[in-house]
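Data card: per-record layout.
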Amino acid sequence: MKNCLVVIDMQNDFISGSLGSEEAKKIVPNVKARIEKAIKENEDIFFTKDTHYDDYLDTMEGKHLPVKHCIDKTFGHDICDELKAFEKNAKNIFIKNTFGYKDLPKFLEDYDNITFLGLCTDICVVSNVMLIKAFYPEKNIFVEKDCCAGTSIENHNSALSVMKSCHIEIK
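The structure for this 171-residue chain is written out next.
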């Protein structure tokens, strides 16, 4: 069995920056412990990085969420300091300019068990999880709920409920 861990958007702007929250800050130690477990168990690790540019406010997302965040080559775009050292362990770091990374399925094709965690449960985590579920309905897909945070506690729980309804195992 081939296993991987997909770490979604654990970036400064989502933790302590322009879109940060106390809930996001609280999961960082859990995410760190889960990445350390993945390394110990020889799981392949992938990171995604939400990536925008100076024209962000002119994009569709920027019109709906007019808060500049994760602008390329800024501190807010970086993986948070507590997890930055793990970038060297990543099989790949995906730069994505929208919620789901459209090329992710081709990178996860050979995995039997795919675990997701990160930010935000109700936007980028659910988008990537459902993308993989659509491509690979027979794969084992997991979400580590204590390693995710949403735009609110209610939205986090709602996203977990939706994913569970679609046969994603919530751990």
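Known properties of this structure: The chain has a mean pLDDT of 97. The chain is about 40% helix and 25% strand.

See the next section for split statistics.
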